[in-house]
Design brief:
The protein is an alpha+beta fold. Helices cover 47% and strands 16% of the residues. It has a three-stranded antiparallel β-sheet, with helices on one face. A hairpin with an 8-residue loop joins strand 2 (64-68) and strand 3 (77-81). Helix 1 crosses helix 2. It is elongated.
Length: 88
């Protein structure tokens, strides 16, 4: 048993892992947005189940986010929309 594992360590480690996960999700979204813009589209889908911090960050940037739970065949994905102006 590691005596060096403390609650402080666990909080810091968890925050770091979460931060890395959210950063990776946002990077995936940014790549999908750029690819959609290159196709002259105003929406794109990303095959991830987004963390709520990812959604919050994209909302702050003005994107409208829709989560689709899908089904077993379609899987889980998120739709990012910048055609509709975000209200509020």
């Amino acid at each position: 048993m590691k005596e060096s594992i403390t609650a402080d360590w666990a909080r810091e480690y968890s925050s770091k892992v979460l931060s890395e996960k959210v950063t990776k999700q946002i990077e995936q979204c940014e790549k999908a947005i750029i690819a959609a813009c290159d196709r002259n589209d105003m929406t794109c889908s990303v095959n991830i189940y987004p963390h709520e911090l990812t959604v919050t960050e994209l909302n702050k940037r003005g994107f409208k986010i829709t989560k689709n739970e899908g089904n077993q065949r379609d899987g889980i994905y998120m739709i990012i929309n910048w055609y509709e102006k975000k209200i509020g």
